[in-house]
Design goal:
mainly beta
């Protein structure tokens, strides 16, 4: 059914396209990070940790090179699967970890092998207790500027203490001093409790369209085949004004709100909750004046800017052009929506070029 809608308040998707954006969201219990000097290739190591009492902690460790590119190391299959279609370099690794509370703060130790076989160890000891007053949005600087548009939200945070160490193949690399005020000394690193990260990443996702609905009403489904598995989206609710709620049936809780405009969808919002049923998480919303915004953990409009849809012979290109904050402006997201028969490909690039 076609709905009469001012499509300036939504993004009118290309014909046959449902959800082309490679959105990622994860909420972790801890995030630890230390910068260091003197290594010929690397300048920082960090880890995002979900604490699990019944089995090993779920960890994504990251090494940052001097050229600002990054390498991921993950220790569980779910994290590895989340990288499917991404251009980001990622390796499955055993990651040894140890967490403890100290009188002076918190401590997190982790150790793993790099892609080059180097033994990387981070021993993070915080400078005091994490404080919610130091929480908020993180500036990613130039890290992965050509491959990701990230949103990182800190809960309670403190700096690294003097006991923090980074060693690679047994060689210790100094963590620079950041603050010295009387007896208080902090180094260039961070210890955060309750850390959320959302992102749009560069990469390519291809799928075969197995099923499309004849009628956009409750129960209507789209079924896509990705290699050996299938993804189903279903219309789970329809409002009196014609608004459709479309849910991805993979347990992750991704939802799309949209209106039908002839044979196309005018999308107003795409959301990824932290847990199925949660209203918080990552939200990509489209509003008036051809605008978009990204929100995280209920914090609205963290990144916002303009949207442009361009048609070309082999498909369409959707561009998200951030206007604020300043660090996001150069991270323009372009998604090429390409179709050949029942085969759809979505190629995402990020950067100013």
């Amino acid at each position: 059914m076609t709905h009469s809608l001012d499509i300036g308040a939504a993004l009118l998707m290309p014909a046959g396209v449902l959800q082309p954006f490679p959105l990622r969201f994860r909420r972790d219990d801890l995030h630890v990070m230390a910068f260091f000097k003197g290594h010929p290739k690397y300048e920082a190591v960090e880890a995002m940790i979900q604490v699990r009492t019944d089995r090993g902690n779920s960890i994504r460790a990251i090494i940052t090179r001097h050229d600002q590119t990054q390498i991921d190391y993950v220790n569980d299959d779910a994290l590895l699967a989340a990288h499917r279609g991404s251009d980001r370099e990622c390796y499955r690794r055993q990651i040894d970890s140890e967490l403890e509370s100290l009188a002076e703060g918190r401590r997190a130790r982790l150790e793993f092998r790099s892609q080059a076989g180097e033994r990387v160890a981070l021993d993070m000891v915080s400078a005091g207790q994490p404080d919610v007053k130091r929480g908020g949005l993180s500036d990613p600087g130039g890290h992965s500027a050509g491959s990701a548009l990230p949103l990182m939200w800190r809960g309670a945070t403190t700096l690294a203490g003097p006991r923090t160490k980074v060693t690679i193949d047994g060689v210790e690399y100094p963590v620079p001093e950041k603050i010295r005020a009387g007896p208080f000394v902090a180094h260039e690193g961070y210890f955060t409790e309750r850390h959320s990260m959302g992102a749009i990443r560069s990469g390519t996702v291809s799928a075969r369209l197995l099923k499309t609905p004849d009628r956009l009403d409750v129960g209507a489904e789209w079924v896509l085949q990705h290699d050996d598995d299938e993804t189903t989206y279903r219309v789970t609710a329809r409002g009196g004004d014609g608004m459709l709620c479309i849910t991805k049936l993979d347990g992750a809780g991704e939802t799309i709100t949209a209106y039908a405009i002839e044979d196309r969808l005018a999308v107003t919002r795409i959301s990824l909750p932290a847990d199925a049923g949660s209203t918080d998480g990552l939200v990509l919303a489209f509003g008036r004046d051809a605008g978009f915004s990204l929100s995280i953990e209920g914090q609205p409009d963290i990144v916002s800017g303009g949207v442009h849809l361009a048609e070309r012979p082999d498909g369409s290109v959707i561009s998200l052009r951030p206007l604020q904050p300043a660090w996001a402006v150069a991270r323009i997201v372009r998604v090429a929506c390409l179709r050949a028969g029942d085969r759809m490909s979505f190629v995402t690039t990020i950067g100013s070029a």
